[in-house]
């Protein structure tokens, strides 16, 4: 079944609150989306420091009060219900992928919202650059890399990247446009040669869907906000909740707010 993306953030969140489970690329174009990691207060400083030390993959754009499921990035929204899919982790192991997390919620949790590269896809499309996973209704391809993040407290792990195939003659434009949005990952971290990142097979992403690369196109890699999930797998905190990769929180903040 083909689902038409909601044109507004409120419409997107309402659809996900109602149980729709689809990747959010192309939803509410013109508005920023966010990755999410939720940790007990005991780990909140470690998570904040991890983002501060690794701003390229983990640009923090919002932090909630302890125990609050609400954010200034979308007044009235509920982080427990308004994403399309979540992941629940215990001791670094994925134990559930629910549609909402109210049964896991408690007053000791702190939520971090992290910039998402979906935010700069709208201006890329407006510039005539194809974003294939949107055109095909797919999730973006994401990969663990051989680049280690700077550790912070009890958190460490590899950087994750997202990949978009870009026509060779438009790579410079994609770099320029995304580079205008440093708060949502900014310019690519690598272009071409996936093996240099330790990626053996682009057809087998660690997260998301494989996306076709056509003749005359170059794989372009951006730092990805799924990186905290790789840190959870590596560091094995006792409990954490994240978004499911590609199933972001749609904010009320216009894209251009994060442009420089």
TrEMBL record:
Signal peptide: none annotated. It holds the Pfam family D-Glu_cyclase. InterPro entries: D-Glu_cyclase, Putative_hydro-lyase, UPF0317. Keywords: Lyase. Its EC number is 4.2.1.-. It comes from the Bacteria. SUPFAM superfamilies: PSTPO5379-like. Belongs to the D-glutamate cyclase family. This is Putative hydro-lyase VSH64_05365. It comes from Amycolatopsis rhabdoformis. The lineage of its organism: Bacteria, Bacillati, Actinomycetota, Actinomycetes, Pseudonocardiales.
